[in-house]
Amino acid sequence: MPTTFLPQASSYAGDIDFLIGLVAVIVMGWFFAAQALFFGFIIKFRAKPGKKAMYIDGLNPLHKRWVSYPHYAVLIFDVIILVFALKVWTHVKIELPPANDTVGVVAQRWSWTFVHSGADGKLDTDDDVKTADELHVKVGDVVHFEGSSRDVLHSFSIPAFRLKQDLIPGRITTGWFKAEQTGTFDIQCVEICGIGHGMMVARVVVETPEQHTAWLATNAPAAAH
Ligand SMILES: [Cu+2]
Predict the structure, then answer these.
(1) Which numeric CATH code is attached to 101-224?
(2) By the 8 A CB rule, do 120 and 127 touch?
(3) Ligand 1 centroid to 211 CA: how many Å?
């Protein structure tokens, strides 16, 4: 695996990094092959005294293969990338593993509101805990998020989880993640949404079950005690 600067803090972070690494390796391979051929030919066919330049019109089928064979090879590599990409896409975006917890993610210009389900594990009940710009989840939990926007297009991104999901006004977008490292990680809006877009930051705090229960208890609404 290629070295990453960000921790791989979710269950699928490694899959996303693998895809990026795969594309990088293939593109790098092609780059070096093309450069080697290019400079090889420059040296091999350089001007020599008494040797006339040859005019190649490209109509000879043997010459055409210099175009068609690399073309087929590129297509084969495209299919390889596609197969791996679809596999990862299906796992991250299509499959929805059973939830241990559900959170609400509400974007608006230019802040985030998070709704935690509280002790009952259900949203839209009296013990919901709402926070601004700080999301709390339990390590190892499959967390479903129900994302929405109050105004314009936003995008919910947690780089350390390799998670990115557009949030569309008038629609609830459901997704999931499973945090596998405790700690505090950045959340950033990654859809240009106005003058305050760059400041539309928040953080996710991944806690041990004990820490999470304690946090919920201290922040639960008075009525739910
Ligand atoms: Cu935004």
Answers:
(1) 2.60.40.420
(2) yes
(3) 30
